[in-house]
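Quick one: structure for this chain?
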Amino acid sequence: MLVPFPIVCFIGALLTDLAYLGSANIMWSNFSIWLITAGLVMGGLAAVTGMIDYAGDRRVRAARPATPHMIINLGVFVIELFNAFVHSRDGWTSVVPTGLTLSVISVVLLGVSAWLGGSLVYRHRVGVKS
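Got it. Here's what it folds into:
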């Protein structure tokens, strides 16, 4: 239940970064950092529960997509943590080009991770009661 929150926040941060790129209105940059921060908080909670599932269930670890899914999610968390520091700068450089680039990379990686997570649930039946 925690997983959708960081996904929505990080996608929202990309959208607000694009809005900032088009308008240079500082409001969009402020929205981005708040979305990134909320995504990191919720992502941290999701990561803890994911690590408990991964460490506590041999069936989860045995599923082929589980390890790449975990590694990508941890990578997105680290990228977004760095992105939060980039977005905390003042002015144009808080978003363009580094912040926007990091947001794009994160969202692309989230897409790959979502596909792997879907595979875990729908093909390998992880987290599904029979």
